[in-house]
Design goal:
Length: about 325
């Protein structure tokens, strides 16, 4: 089985969409997505500087749009093309779960962009209310890491793998953790604007609940994993509930990888802006072939992996 995964906030870099605009369909796709998002995704993906695209209100729509465009190019299909003919499981990290939901057919690309627009603006507002942030804790004994995070009054907002946990909270709490790191661990500040996936984001959850009645959720056409527990979501409504609640509760990407391994995933493609999740997979999913689709130059390798996985499935069915 093949996994198609979608990265989260912090994966964007200045100009990363420039090579994608060389593909014939991309400019039109980004223009349409920009209209729904209410921001100029082409400008932000090509000429905006690092500080501009770090802004949560910009970063989140930009990342979702990039994933949708990359998937369209990978599959040689429109933005809303179904994946039900493929033996794939889809998952996304944090805001990437919105991209994954769109790929699974749970949300149309228009509803996905409406959702991420509201998510981004309300999370940005929540982050501005109190100076907060996030730091990655790399290495160390997992129990000692969690104990140190708790001692500083922080939340383990992202549990990415056995060797990487992201702590979130106020800047003072993060400074306390940095001054008293767990043994054999490094504390690395992240370039994000707030304590995402914590109680600091509660106002954004309320805003998304208010948006919910205007969205249409369909049952996923392929297995879609939840960031909450790594499990396959049962319905479109459950997927939407997960997306809303995810804003203020931890992301368990470690459990998503465990589920993919249990499902027999042997290949993994990470959509643009790629690199982070393939890195985690190389360390946490032994023997899995990976392709990070960073630019259109990576599409050939991704299509080869997709074709190989399809051939393996067909041989297994004979």
């Amino acid at each position: 089985m093949l996994a198609i995964v979608c990265p989260g906030q912090g994966s964007q870099t200045p100009g990363f969409l420039s090579p994608w605009l060389e593909l014939p369909a991309v400019a039109g796709q980004l223009a349409a997505l920009s209209e729904v998002a209410g921001i100029d995704l082409i400008a932000h993906g090509t000429t905006s500087d690092a500080d501009t695209i770090k802004d949560t209100a910009v970063a989140q729509p930009l990342i979702v749009a990039a994933g949708l465009v990359a998937a369209s190019a990978l599959l040689d299909a429109p933005l809303d093309a179904p994946l039900d003919s493929l033996a794939v499981v889809v998952a996304g990290h944090s805001v990437g779960e919105i991209t994954a939901a769109a790929l699974a057919g749970t949300l149309s690309h228009e509803d996905a962009m409406r959702f991420v627009r509201e998510r981004a603006t309300t999370m940005a507002a929540a982050a501005a209310a109190t100076p907060t942030g996030m730091s990655a804790v790399v290495g160390g004994d997992p129990e000692e890491v969690l104990a140190a995070i708790a001692a500083a009054g922080l939340t383990p907002a992202n549990m990415n793998s056995k060797g990487q946990t992201v702590a979130a909270g106020t800047l003072e709490q993060l400074a306390e953790l940095a001054a008293n790191p767990p043994a054999k661990a490094r504390v690395i500040p992240l370039a994000v604007a707030g304590a995402f996936h914590t109680q600091h984001m509660a106002p954004a959850v309320s805003a998304l609940q208010a948006l919910r009645p205007s969205l249409t959720a369909h049952n996923p056409s392929v297995p879609l994993l939840s960031n909450f527990d790594g499990a396959v979501v049962a319905s479109g409504e459950d997927a939407l509930s997960s997306l809303i609640a995810q804003v203020s509760r931890p992301v368990r990407w470690d459990l998503c990888m465990d589920t993919m391994t249990a499902m027999g995933v042997t290949g993994l493609i990470e959509l643009a802006p790629a690199g982070t999740l393939t890195g985690l997979a190389k360390r946490g999913m032994s023997g899995v072939a990976t392709v990070a689709v960073k630019t259109p130059d990576d599409l050939a390798s991704a299509k080869e992996l997709l074709a190989a996985q399809t051939a393996m499935r067909e041989e297994g069915m004979q």
